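The data are quoted verbatim here:
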Amino acid sequence: MHAERFYSYLRKARRELWTSLRTLSDEDLSRAVLPTEGARCIKDLVFHIAAVEDGWFHLDLLGKPMVQVAFGLEPTSEDTYWHHETEPLEKLLAYWEAVEADTLQLWPELMAVAGSDQKIKAFDDRTETLSADEVLWHVMQHEVRHTAHIVQMMRLLGHKPPSLDYVFLMAH
């Protein structure tokens, strides 16, 4: 599988997801569905998915500033990183859209780094590393995993989620 084709799938899946999320009430988007200290509601995961791409692709792989700075979304604590139930959905989606636009603009640079032998520190407090290509695939599979969480949360809240499987969006 080629990374560009898979990122194209993610972009299509995002559009389907975003359209569905825009039909939900703010109450449902903000409702704590998961009993955890981390992402508890749909809005938390919307931010988290975008922040992971922003951090790994823009900051870690390319050494560029994170897009979140322009949106005033820089976390100052674990709580402000994970919890976004009071943020308007449109602000969170605008951030995600801006991250995507930046990724697309920087795609050739990302591909050059992914094809290099550059190693990226996997954890701030540990020594393990990943290749740049592994980081690229980690970020993309991370999004698939968490969009599946959002789909499940939509079901738990009584809504019909979109079908986001690769085959539904990319078969030709």
Notes: The chain has a mean pLDDT of 96.
